[in-house]
Amino acid sequence: MTTIEKETMIVEIKNVDEKGAGQAVVWRENELGNKKKLKLTIPQTLPGEKVRVTVDQPQRRHRKAMPEEILNAHVERIGAACPHFEKCGGCVWQHWDYNGQLQQKTNHVKRVIEEQGFDPNLVKDTIGMDEPWRYRNKMEFTFATDGSLGLHEQGNFRKIISLETCLIAGKEMVEAALEVANWVKEHALKGYNKDTHEGLLRHLMVRQSFATGEMMLALFATEAPDGSLKNAVDTIVARITEKFPQVKSFMWLENTDWADRTQSEKSHTLAGRDFIYDEMDGYRFRVWFDTFFQTNPTQAQKLVDLAVEMAEPKKSENMIDLFCGVGTFSLPFASRVGKLVGIEIVESSIESAKRNAGDNGIENATFLAQDARTGLAQVLETFGRPELLLLDPPRSGAGGKVMRRIGRSQPERIVYVSCNPDTFATDIKQLEPFGYTLKVVQPVDLFPHTVHVECCALLVRNN
Ligand SMILES: C[S@@+](CC[C@H](N)C(=O)[O-])C[C@H]1O[C@@H](n2cnc3c(N)ncnc32)[C@H](O)[C@@H]1O
Q1: Distance from the CA of 58 to the center of ligand 1, in angstroms?
Q2: Domain enclosing residue 112, as ranges
């Protein structure tokens, strides 16, 4: 087969894929005169648009190409607000009017629900944000090998887009990150090289509670912050504490693991404490650098309100909060039910949930550090059948075994909070043989300008 290096073509976008990119199909003739199908993934395009693209090696079956020209723009196409949008891997849909994004999310949830045999009319319109910017309370920036700080380039985990701004992160969070970036430049500190595993700085995590204003900075590095680094570290600590008095926790986290993630073997508190205080639904939470805490607090509050509204908890009832994390749902529910048990696999989250319950004067909640499946079996034996069960699993879903165990335990009402409509739809299908009816699915947009959508759904036992 002759290799064709490049071919420029005009294609029509049929739909967007699960990562938010436009998709087109082209039939090409090969040198033998046979028709061959070429599937194209074209980011930053919208359904129905005609687009000019230059495709590398178009004889292959599937190629990705960036649009060179949009020949007929979708009516919902808008200019991206962020100067980094074209390259940065953080947002995929800034070119899509916000109402269009919300409609796309609703349609997606309806489709996956229908594919599992449920009535799509049970899915309500996605609840969006009034102001879909600066919504994130946590960001993880990465250092490039030359020490510059930013976010990963779209589809390229080796390349870092140097940070000038970020419109989905809190403003003060970005300002503090830029301060750190300047300090790294001044001291000519090296970023970590993922190939050679050399270099010092790996990530900067910035968290800020929108409720208390408290901020945490966490620098992940391959060495301790002493010896030859001491002067440089003293400089940034003095500068940050002076310019950003809201920084109540400044952490240095040693990370020599080869995996590219924000974990730590040894932590050093450079200033303040090792956690910050945040709030949800009026309850106070301690948040450490590795604590899972909802990253869009405005919309997470709506999720909590919806879950309470759907569940209609009563003081006479017992409840299980499965995949409870640090108790984001457990605390608001505990004050409304008789007894509550939270189950979660990460021990530090369970320790945190216990402490959060104590800090908030909640005495009717217990927490168990266990895998969902074994934890559920254990709790059902000691606690008995709950009237109410809430589950909020990770993106991979709860899975058939857990869902069937839930079905067998026969709670009257099940509230399913999901961050992945696909696994949610297959999970709830598992409950049908146990006599449950899906009543309502409410999508909520926690991540504007991305493909992600959360759902809160109610299932009720038939008798
Ligand atoms: C989407 S988070 C929800 C946490 C909590 N409901 C909240 O809103 O903060 C999912 C949680 O499930 C936990 N998890 C993951 N796999 C688990 C398993 N097999 N058993 C129990 N918990 C698990 C994670 O540690 C995480 O805290």
Answers
A1: 43
A2: 103-130+295-461
